[in-house]
Amino acid sequence: MIDLVLPSVLETLYMVFFSTAFSLLLGFPLGILLVITEKGSIWEKPMLNKVLNTIINLLRSFPFIILMILLFPLSKLLIGKTIGTKATIVPLSIAAAPFVARVMESSLKEVDKGVIEFSLSMGATVPQIITKVLFSEALPSIILGVTLTIINLIGYSAMAGSIGGGGLGDLAIRYGLYRYQTDVMIVSVIVIIILVQSIQFIGNTLAAKINKK
Amino acid sequence: MISIQNLSKDFTNGKEILTAVDNISLNVNKGEIFGIIGLSGAGKSTLIRCINRLEEPTSGKIFIDNVDLTSLDKESLRLMRKEIGMIFQHFNLLSQKTVYDNIAFPLELNGENKDQIDKRVNLLLEYVELTDKKYSYPSQLSGGQKQRVAIARAIANNPKILLSDEGTSALDPRTTKSILSLLNRIRREFGITIVMITHQMEVVKDICDRVAIMEDGKIVETNTVESIFREPKTKTASTFISSMSNTIEDEVINPKDFNGILIRLSYLGNDANQPIVSKAIKQFDINVNILSGNINKLQETNVGHLILELTGDDDQISKAISHLRNEDVHVEVLQ
């Protein structure tokens, strides 16, 4: 059983780790842009804001499984194939990016307007406000957002398993569903539960520890 | 130092236009503590936020040391803002940074090196008496301590001007006093010009040299604090003065309850040496009944108010009143 489950766990962790990293890389700047280009914000660009909002909403309306199939050509282009753990990282990252953007947007919006106003009154530049004020003030909330993203990606990666993505989802479907090995199914589910619980616990603890508010 | 000329600020909400600041002109002298008092909604907050263009004026000009602020581009404005510190009602401290880092923040923005920053921050911490709170976070401080951090932060760049947007409104009376005396010290020792808006007459009384009274987006009266206390010209001004807890409420003394003539004497502390009332009684054939009296301590002097009931011959009373008027006492006949 261990021989069966362990490689799948590693695959899942591999997919989740890289897709989290890439989706943050894509989504975080988007989230910042959403906040600063808003009306009344520090870099007001109403048109850009509208375009970004539309794109993000559009991407978020796709059911993940469909998006993944639609992105097969992109995976092929970047990784060279459409199935397997590596290839799955591409659609996972792109599917999670708009989600990350929204999560970051809401974290950054929690930052007290007065603090931003004060920074402006001190002659801070827009990049300075982003790095020294928005980011550091929102950090505890950002950590919770990242936690949420990781957990979401664990769910997505299990779904990706059903179309050849590998990992725990794949294991549960192949052994648990197709081969009627209920014990494998149960173990997979338990491992996923443990993963989700521990990540949420770590996220909560970390966020609470660094939050000085 | 600051010259505001025909400044207006409109807010549009759909089709509705709200004029928050309505064609205001005023001058603030160098090294002065200038108060702007008004009820909430009078537009005073919008006015002070126009001074560093946190709020863009709709029309009018603002000169600071003869530089027209309204004509500056974004980058020049940003640099100009470093010479204008600002404190706020709700302090606006960086909640995730220590007291030290909060004060260091404006210096970091300038790209100063660590040693310079460290020296300056420690000096400022000492100045606002918070050295022992250096590594505390804002959530661990009292309101007064928070505002002192905010003040240290606001003067870190050695600004020429300090703007206070209701800086003491969230504080209790005792803490307010200590913050005001800190502001006064800053003005005295660094020559920083302070513009403060408030709705508390106590604040104006304690610290301001001159005050502008604002109502419905307009300034209805500007004068030295002494003169306003002695001789308020507008109803709004007298309402503010009488709203102070230790002042006579006009409503408490209803002139209809008295038979004689009621007068209110207002005089400056220096005039209080003369026994003017007693002299008037001796000189004219009148009786005087003291209904109430109080003294307001201002920054430099005191203003006393006395409400008297005068009874006797009408002719003698009017002579007595004109006599008092000659004695450099402001006399207001209430009935």
Question: What does it look like?
Answer:
The complex is a heterodimer of chains A (213) and B (335). Chain A has one domain: MetI-like (MetI-like fold, Orthogonal Bundle). In chain A, 83% of the residues lie in helices and 0% in strands. Chain A contains nine helices and no strands. The termini of chain A are far apart. Chain B has 335 residues and is an alpha/beta fold. Chain B folds into two domains: 2-232, Rossmann fold (3-Layer(aba) Sandwich); 258-333, 2-Layer Sandwich (Alpha-Beta Plaits). In chain B, helix 3 (99-109) packs across helix 4 and helix 3 runs parallel beside helix 5. The longest helix of chain B has 18 residues, at 173-190. Chain B is elongated and about 80 Å long. At the A-B interface, helix 6 and helix 7 of A face helix 2, strand 6 and helix 3 of B.
Anisotropy-based shape of chain A: elongated
Return the CATH class of chain A. Mainly Alpha
- Secondary-structure element order of chain B, N to C: EEEHEEHEHHHEHEHEEHHEHEEHE
What is the count of DSSP helices of chain A, taking H or I runs of 4+ residues?
9
Q: What structural keywords apply?
A:
heterodimer, A: 213 residues, mainly alpha, MetI-like fold, 83% helix, 0% strand, B: 335 residues, alpha/beta, Rossmann fold, Alpha-Beta Plaits, six-stranded mixed β-sheet, four-stranded antiparallel β-sheet, 11 helices, 34% helix, elongated
Brief account:
The complex is a heterodimer of chains A (213) and B (335). By secondary structure, chain A is mostly helical.
Blueprint (SSEs and pairs):
The complex is a heterodimer of chains A (213) and B (335).
Chain A: H1 2-36, H2 46-61, H3 64-70, H4 72-79, H5 85-109, H6 113-121, H7 126-161, H8 167-178, H9 182-210
Helix pairs in contact in A: 1-5, 1-7, 1-8, 2-5, 3-5, 4-5, 5-7, 7-8, 7-9, 8-9
Chain B: E1 2-13, E2 16-28, E3 33-38, H1 44-51, E4 59-64, E5 67-68, H2 74-81, E6 84-88, H3 99-109, H4 114-127, H5 143-154, E7 161-165, H6 173-190, E8 193-198, H7 201-207, E9 210-215, E10 218-224, H8 225-230, H9 235-242, E11 261-268, H10 276-283, E12 286-297, E13 302-312, H11 314-326, E14 330-333
Parallel strand pairs in B: 3-8, 3-9, 6-7, 7-8
Antiparallel strand pairs in B: 1-2, 1-4, 4-5, 9-10, 11-13, 11-14, 12-13
